[in-house]
Design a protein that fits this description.
single chain, alpha+beta, Deoxyribonuclease I, Chain A, 6-stranded mixed sheet, 14 strands
Length: 256
């Protein structure tokens, strides 16, 4: 099974650029999980989804705030059970979590909050982190997990081009990084680091200072899996040449 995750930073934008449809067809993945679709229900209804994503069924989680957050999951099987959110009103209204039941395991599409430049949303993110951790712990009692998405945190120094300059900034605070360490210690692995040990591999670049061309970036998008199924993971890669968003896609190949 090949699963691809991508923060597309606005579905309308990547559709207008002519990127998303070709990407889905060329990759021919079993499942796509997209974050930050930024679509209202009214805008979604105007899309020609069968032409845009032929052969795939769309599962949406749209936030209450127009043009903000939101998830899209594409599957080739329309019958897969899906649940939205964390059963927490304050975070669920932003459309940040979708859980798919793949039979042998759960697949979670997640878009973690950004702590914001002045860290005013850091308390909200920490609360979300705790709610998400509980959600995963509850699911793990019955089946292993694959978690994919934008975690909005560079975990270790190796995951960011300029760790010293960004120490304490949003996405690289002590609180966010320590939570990531704690979460992984609960029985999960960062799949990319199982295959790639060196630095210089990023999934997000700022729009300014020609950051992407110079590869001054952050690795903030992850595929995390339950440690008990780590032996099933065959590959976990970053696709930095795919353009269209300030993030690039990531891919997970797993035997099921």
């Amino acid at each position: 099974m090949n699963i691809i995750s991508w923060n597309i930073n606005g579905l309308r934008a990547v559709v207008k650029k002519g990127v998303i449809g070709d990407f889905v067809r060329d990759q021919n993945a079993d499942v796509y999980i997209f974050q930050e679709v930024k679509m209202s229900k009214e805008a979604i209804d105007k899309l020609d989804l069968p032409s845009l994503f032929p052969g795939y069924h769309a599962h949406w989680s749209i936030g209450q705030r127009p043009g903000y957050s939101g998830l899209l999951t594409l599957t080739q099987d329309s019958s897969l059970p899906m649940t939205k959110g964390l059963h927490e009103e304050d975070t669920d209204e932003e459309g940040r979590v979708v859980t798919l039941d793949l039979g042998k395991l759960y697949l979670i599409n997640v878009y973690f909050p950004n702590a914001s430049r002045d860290l005013k949303r850091l308390p909200f993110k920490i609360a979300f982190n705790k709610q998400f951790e509980k959600h995963c712990a509850d699911l793990s009692k019955t089946k292993p997990l694959i978690i994919g998405g934008d975690f909005n945190v560079a975990h270790e120094d190796i995951d960011i081009a300029r760790p010293r300059e960004n120490d304490g900034n949003s996405g690289f605070t002590k609180e966010e990084r320590s939570w990531m360490s704690k979460f992984l210690s609960r029985g999960y692995i960062d799949t990319f680091r199982e295959f790639t040990k060196d630095g210089g591999h990023y999934t997000w670049w700022a729009h300014y200072s020609n950051a992407r061309a110079r590869n001054v970036g952050w690795r903030i998008d992850y595929f995390i899996v339950s440690k008990k199924i780590s032996f099933l993971v065959k590959d976990s890669v970053i696709l930095p040449k795919v353009m269209g968003s300030d993030h690039c896609p990531i891919s997970l190949k797993i035997s099921l």
